Amino acid sequence: MINLAVVDTLVLWVWVNQVAVPALCAVTGRCMHYELTKPFLLAYLWPVGSTVHMMATWSIVSITFTRFVSVCWSARATHLNSRRNVMIRLCSMHVFCLIFNVPRFFERYVFTDGNGRPRVARSTVASTLLFNYGYQVFLYYLVIYIIPLTLVIYFTVRLYSSLRQWNKKREDMTAKARDNHDLTFSLVIVVVVFVICQLANPIRRLLVAIYPNTEYICGSIYFYYKSWVSILVNFNSASNFFIFCLCGVGFRRRLVQMCFRRGSVEPSHFMSNATTSRGTMESTTKNKE
Questions:
Q1: What is the mean pLDDT of each run of 10 residues along the chain (289 residues)?
Q2: What ranges do the domains of the chain cover?
Q3: What global pTM score does this model have?
Q4: CATH numeric code, 2-275
């Protein structure tokens, strides 16, 4: 959960600096220095945005997998969801995202024109067919969309199936089992929002690869489409926290405890590995019978 919160915050921070602030400057006309910083933002902040966006995508996969193990593979949860294994998965994921996005830091470069003003241009490497179609289309779609979306949808379908079984026996659940049920339900909603918000971005990536010199001028179709894609991606990152607050009773209770210091909160509660949701629910039902 902490990992997802940090990555979502980074996604929003990049968006504010790369989109929101420039938009305000363009509307107010009071940020003349923005024209000097724009080339640097495009050349160096854009790769950072791609990296944290990829981290956010795979963070959803990691959280969904962890929850899937706790619910559907309860016998393996103690091992697979141990603190050590979870940290290994997260660190490996972040390292992979960084390595995968290294070529993006060489996609553009900043130079000075005849008037001494900084300008940005695509590098020779970024103009090759291998980069545009091999890396930016094939590999990017495979790693950012096809594989993670397939995994997330599979895990979510299995979790939803378990939720339907739990709903039939909700009255027999303990308070902790209900909290785990609510957490799983919240995660399913997060994944649904994630899939919807991510569907428009692959089309934009394809347009950029096919038409790398597309003008982002106001009035063009691509200008508005690009803006809506940006809104959806950032809405996805901004909504996760509120979804957990609205749908998770246990999450809200522990959030209040953390904010007002009314008690200690175990970080492992949200991704419990020793006692799984299904195991708790089943044992409670058997005791009542």
A1: 84 83 75 75 87 92 89 86 91 95 90 84 86 86 90 89 70 63 79 84 70 60 76 86 78 76 48 43 43
A2: 2-275
A3: 0.75
A4: 1.20.1070.10
